[in-house]
Structures
1.
Amino acid sequence: MSETSLLSRPNEKQLYRDALWERRTLLSLASPALLSIVLIIIIPVAWLFYLSFIGKDGGFSMENYARMVESKTYARIFLTTFKVSALTTIICILIGYPLAYFLSQLPRKAANICMLTVLLPFWTSLLVRTYAWLVILQRNGLINNWGIKLGLWDEPLKLAYGLNGTLIGMVHIMAPFLILPLYGTMKTINQDYMKASANLGATPIRTFWQVFFPLSLPGLSAGTLIVFVLCLGFFVTPAILGGGKVIMVSMQISNNIELFFNWGAASALGVVLLATTMLILFISSRVLKIDKILGGGQ
Amino acid sequence: MKLNKISISVLALSGSILVASMTSASAEDVLSIASWGGSYQDAQSKALFQPAAKEMGITIKEETYGGMSDVRLRSKSGATQWDIVASGSGSAARAAAEGLLEPLDYKVIDVSTFYPGLYTEYCVGSDVYSVVDAWNTKTYGENGPRSWADFFDVKKFPGTRSLRDKYDINFQIALLADGVPKEKVYEVLSTDEGMKRALDKLRELKPHVAVWWKSGAQHAQLMKDGEVDMTTGWNGRFDVVRKDGAKVDYDFNQGFLDYDCFAIPKGAPHKELAMKFLAKISEAKIQANLAKYITYGPANKKAYENGLIDEKVAKTLPSYPANAEKQLRINLDWYTKYGEKASAMFQEMLTE
């Protein structure tokens, strides 16, 4: 009964009009942003999609996609891309989770100072950091020189130029992307839950796994997803630290431009990479309820 | 106040640009040339462009560009083309096959004293460099590899290797290492079995390849850091790091003589003048200048005569007759015909 009385308010129409007007104003305020998204994202992506169907002779053709199916190279490159991205993500979690946990338990001031050590590399150029790793990891680099001098090993270890170097460099670059959302989530976990758990007789380990860990999951899955997706498009680090042995999709895109002298061959790879990334985002949004993690579902 | 100053200078700048573009549009004797920039274009400018322009009494507008893909872009979008572009021989050949370049008039440009194979219908050689095998003198001392067979022999020369991450000359050196005589290399490489034979040889060396290099700067750095014991690469780059104290040496035996060249894009606004200008910078007298600024050799053999180039410097250049004799040429026909296939095969081998 109360509902009908609400609906039959005398100024209902006026209110409705106001609301509509407000929504339109908001939309028009957002229109510069919408326009720029159309201009800098949607149109280029559509153009990319179109180009991927243009063959060598300039006409419509599926040859750019056919090449990807026929040649073993492309399947291997996609496999490498996923392998490197997955390994980077896993190592990031193994290193990042304990660190974020440690930071979240520190008093605020100490945590802020420690956070700087996470953020500082984040603010340094990616290229600079990658070359710094090269200096440290190479055959006559810091680690090998000291290791041999101290008698820890006799032959220089193969650290730079290969999968090892690529992973080390990428983890270093990606770790903050995992730690930041994770730390944010952990900070919002009410410490009273842990006290209550202890009060009810749970051991610290059980408290962690049954109370703290599940509550930190939204941050963990957000960070994992960000890291994994960003890794898929990595170029500089594998190109420099991989020594030509780690070939990822982005590198093949640039190879294809040089090799086939036509944008189509490169565009097709870009389209496939984009489609895979979107598929991953879609699946994880279903499984992980990503909208809630990113704050849209509140 | 500050803003005022800035806006005045901006105004002044745009004014001068306007004036400059107006004068260049009206004058008939201005040529636009695009090259690679950096120390390379610097050398070209001082050695070739400026002296030639002075003699002809014309003005050169120099620009830096990103290669033949820029020429294609300009031609597709209908923008004003450059009059002359500097290019690698391989990409010039491909651009020519695509119809982007103007055929050169060799009645105007005199190439009678050029090394054979350093000019094509569409591009004329500007400088000669060499792809050689370089070794770490700390590892091997004076007794470095003297042939590609040595380079591939990991028993006789234990140590790590580096090769280019593209097919480039890798197929050719693999066949030379496998015992194919110099003259037969391209003949063998023009068959399926030949290409497979080369690839198998590369596969054999692959476990010993520590790095697949991407750029000249990289292979020079690899030798300087002692990261690898042997690498293929461009001779000039090794000279530069050797001056910097790197323990590296190389020799020209079985090296690959390759060249950079100049071409005229289709639709160049001053085609005829560009042709005359190319004739001028191909003269021995002008070509001899280049070695003063960069360790690349002239394409014109005559530049080595009459003491135009200091004998001591001349002996270190890739196109010095005694050095050139020991080397192979880059066969552009092979690259146009089999390049794509070789590249795909090489890529597949790399990702195995």
Note: Chain B has a mean pLDDT of 88.
2.
Amino acid sequence: MSDALSIIAGYLVSWTFFEAALMTLALTLLAMLFGMLLGIIFALIQESRIKTLRGVVLIYLWLFRGTPVLLQIIFVFNVLPVFGIVLSGFVSGVIALSLNQGAYMTEIFRSGLQAVGKQQRIAGSALGMKQSQVMRFVVLPQALRIVVPPTGNQFMGMLKESALVSVIAVQELLLVADQTASANFRYLEALSTAAIYYLALTTIFMVIQTYIERWLAPRKHGAKVSWTQRLLRMTAQPRSSQ
Amino acid sequence: MKDEINSALSFREEASTIDVVPGKSLLSVKHVSKAFDDQWVLDNVSLDVEVGKTQVILGPSGSGKSTLLRCMNLLEPIDAGAIWFSGQEISAQLDRAHLVRRELSMVFQHFELFPHLNALENIMLAPTRIKGMSRVEAREKAMVLLEKVRIADKASLYPDQLSGGQQQRVAIARALAMEPKVMLFDEPTSALDPEMVKEVLDVMTSLSEAGMTSVVVTHEMAFAREAAQRVVFMEQGRIVEDVDKDAFFSGNVGERAQLFMSNML
């Protein structure tokens, strides 16, 4: 057993696994970044009155929420070359995961936008704001706060989902672990190492999410809070809600 | 106390910038009709709001009072008729509606303060973001307004930390921050606990006395009696009475308005 532990320790500090973890992290962050961009654009389109664009978004949601992510990944990697678009495994993976994530983020942002009541929008309009100003100054600041917890979930989901791109030979954590194990049949050690990396990353995400939620929470006790104070607050104990 | 506020609430300079002769109608509703789902909520309604006057609109619920108010600042589209403001037919230029609304501020029954901003920021938002006022100037003006509505000490509190009456007073300050020519009040005290009604009505009365042109949909008879110059009584989408306050309260009105009043008092 101590044998296994020392091998795991060795894997944990090895460049191979560290690089694979970075690859997993890069896949996750890029896919989430593009997914969120797509999500906010498509959510705003769905809120708009442009019927044709709304139709396009609906078809997109239908396609990407209605088929397996794994299929989407393999599709981008293997079918696009038929049309002369040859992409690396990494780029294919990012594209497929982003498009898939975009569909879910659209729904999350849309529910966030809808959670801001109609009366709030009317209040903005009544002050003389254009529709775009109502969206920017009244609806979005409130909606963003609402979407933080579900977006955090998506981040963690994406981190785990990124393992699927191992099927198109992207050297991320799961594939590297699998390859390492198949060389010496030490599956316990290799897979445990991957699991530890995944757990470490999801833990970091959770902590970041908590901070963002606290950051965005309405600031009680009055006055404007400076950036320094916010940073200091990060190290403090969570304040109990009033 | 009231004198103090009156002097602070000097809107006379505001009124002088309006290119309409005092006593003439600043806002006119002309033969306006509106239907929701085949039901007429406004049926050939005409109404004139004169500069510097306070007009109270009374009537049972569902009589179309709030809808009429929302039609005035084009928040509700009308199906027939026209709305005139400052000599222009604003209902014919809906693409400019947002500009018109900067001069016709509205106060809502449920306050509708922006929950992500504190009281001061609520007031500063529209002047800074859509009028292009500097933050320094907007902050100064907002503080003056908060003093006028007597809650300067709550400037940094968020809406959910304020009582209903305090929220409504911030909402009034927010509406005033756009330096409107007309204030539209949509049942501003209906959602308040009884002990908070007075603090809001006092602010509104001061505004009226300072010569702010106002249209007030309300059930507060006492306010109508104290602050209004004209009283409009609506029922089933029609204006039944449109008379001077004194005529209204001396009982010089039709049977329906009398019945309504006897139920209110």
Note: Chain A touches chain B at residues 119-120, 122-130, 133, 137-138, 141-142, 145, 218-220, 222-224 (CB under 8 Å).
